[in-house]
Amino acid sequence: MVARILTIAGSDSGGGAGIQADIKTITALGGYAMTAVTAITVQNTQGVSAVHPVPPEIVAGQIRACIDDIGVDAIKIGMLGNEAIINAVADALEGVKVPIVLDPVMIAKGGAALIEEEAVWALMQRLLPMASVITPNAPELEALTETDVADAADMLLAAQELLNAGPRAVLAKGGHLDGDQLTDWLVTRHGHQAFVSARIDTRHTHGTGCTLAAALACSLGQGLPVAEAVVRARAFVRLAMLSAPGLGQGHGPMGQQTVWNDVTAPAPVFNQVTLPALDYAASVGFYRLLGLKLIVDSPADGYARFEAGNGVTLSIHVGDGVAGGATIYLEALALDAWVKQLEATGVVFETLPRDEDWRWREARLRDPAGNRVCLYHAGDDRRFPPWRV
Q1: Per CATH, which fold does 4-258 belong to?
Q2: Is 313 noted as a catalytic residue in this protein?
Q3: Given 15, 207, 252, 255, the catalytic residue
Q4: Among 86, 73, 58, which Cα is nearest to 1's?
Q5: Could you say which of 10, 14, 210, 255 is catalytic?
Q6: Which of the residues 10, 16, 18, 209 is marked catalytic?
Q7: Which of 132, 185, 239, 333 has CB 3.0 to 4.6 Å from 259, enough for a Cys bridge?
Q8: Inter-residue long-range contacts of 81-85, CB under 8 Å, 24+ positions, other chains counted
C-alpha cells in the first residue's frame, strides 16, 4: 500500500517551499501527499511580503478530515505561525501513533519571520515531545536552545541539548555554517552520527528545509529506519538542487519534480545500461541524433554516457563486451513523427512503425556497433498490460 503522508505547513505562492515543495517531494518519492494548510503566504524567490494565517479550527479540521478517512503513515509539520495554530495541531494529533517530523520553521530564506516569538515556547512544550525527528538548522538550534552555534561541534552539543526537550531524534542541519563541507548531525538517545557532503554552489536553495523534512517523513512512513531515511532524504535534496530549473531572481526553487529513477527509491531501480561500441564517434553521433543528452564524453577511454528524457542513463563503451546481444528500447509519444525526422537525416530503419500483437507500436534499427534499438510507443501497456500478473 502506498505510504500516506500528511504535511501540515504553509502555502508558498512561488511554489518553491512549504506545502508545494512537500507535495512534489512526497509524490516523487512514491508517497501519497495530503495537506493541512496553516497559512497563505505571498512570496516568491525574493522573499515573503505577506502572511495570512488560516483559522486554527480549519487547520485542525483539515488534519482530522485526512486522518479519519484516508489514514496516515507519517506526518511532516512545517510552518505553524502562532500559538493558537500550534495548540490546534497538537490537539488534533493527540493519540496519533505514526512518525512525526517537525521542521521548526522560524525564518524564511529572505529573512522574514514565520513564527511569533511567543509561539516558540508552545512549540517546545506541545510538539517537541510528539516528534520522532526534529530538523532544525543552525539559527533555529540557537533559538530553541538559547546557545551559540558557530561550528559543527557547537551544533552537535546544541542538538544533544534539544534532544532532552522530548523528541526521539534531532537532525541538526549544517547548511548555514561556513565551509566547503556540509555536516548534518543525527542525534538520538543511542548516540550520534555525522552525515558529511560537499556543499553545492547554487542560489537555488529555496525550500531545502521543507524538502528534507518531507522526504524524511515519506521515508519513515515507507518503513525505513531513521538513519537510512536521513541518507535518502539528503540524497533527494542534493539531486533536487542539482536539477533546479533556474527560475526566479532570488533564492530559486529546486527541481523535486525531476528527481527520477535515482538512489532515492527504496526498491531496486533500473536506470543505467552500457552498450558495447566499435566506433566511438559514430556511436556518440547516433545516440545524440536519437535525442539523448550527452553528459559524459571521454573519447580517450572510449566511454560516453547519455541521459534520456526521464533521467535514465545509457552508456557506450568501446571494447566492452560483444555487440548485438541486447535490444535497447526508447519510448516516445509521437513515434511516427520521430521516425520520419530520423529518416530525413539518413537513419536507416529495419522496420518502420507498426502495431504489434503485444499492443506496442514499434520501429526497429541498429546502432553503429550493431546493437538492436527499438523505438516504440506503449502508453499504459508497458507497465499495465491486460495480462499483467
Answers
A1: UDP-N-acetylmuramoyl-L-alanine:D-glutamate ligase (3.40.1190)
A2: no
A3: 207
A4: 73
A5: 210
A6: 209
A7: 239
A8: 81/10, 81/38, 81/39, 81/51, 81/53, 81/114, 81/115, 81/116, 81/119, 82/53, 82/115, 82/116, 82/119, 83/116, 83/118, 83/119, 83/122, 84/56, 85/38, 85/39, 85/53, 85/54, 85/56, 85/59
CA distance 338 to 335: 5
Q: What is the pLDDT of residues 322-352, one digit of tens each?
A: 888 889 999 999 999 999 999 999 999 999 9
Active site residue 35: no
Of 7, 173, 211, 264, which is the active-site residue?
A: 173
Q: What nine digits make up the cell of 312?
A: 535514465
Strands (E), the chain: 4-12, 32-44, 47-53, 74-77, 100-102, 133-134, 169-172, 181-188, 191-198, 272-277, 293-298, 303-307, 313-318, 327-331, 351-355, 361-366, 372-377
**Where does the chain hold its CATH 3.10.180.10 domain(s)?**
272-381
**Tens digit of pLDDT for each residue in 202-258?**
999 999 999 999 999 999 999 999 999 999 999 999 999 999 999 999 999 999 998
208 is catalytic: yes
Helix (H, G, I), strand (E, B) or coil at 331: strand
For 79, phi then psi, to 5°, come to -65, 130
Write down the mean pLDDT value for the chain. Answer: 93
Residue 180 cell numbers, joined: 566547503
Q: Which residue has the cell 563503451?
A: 317
Judge whether 173 counts as a catalytic residue. yes
Confirm whether 205 is a catalytic residue.
yes
| Residue 47 annotated as catalytic | no
Catalytic residue of the set 38, 208, 211, 264:
208
Specify the CATH number of the domain 272-381: 3.10.180.10
Catalytic residue among 205, 252, 255, 264: 205
Q: Are 335 and 375 in contact (CB under 8 A)?
A: yes
- Given a cut of 90, whether residue 6 has pLDDT beyond it is yes
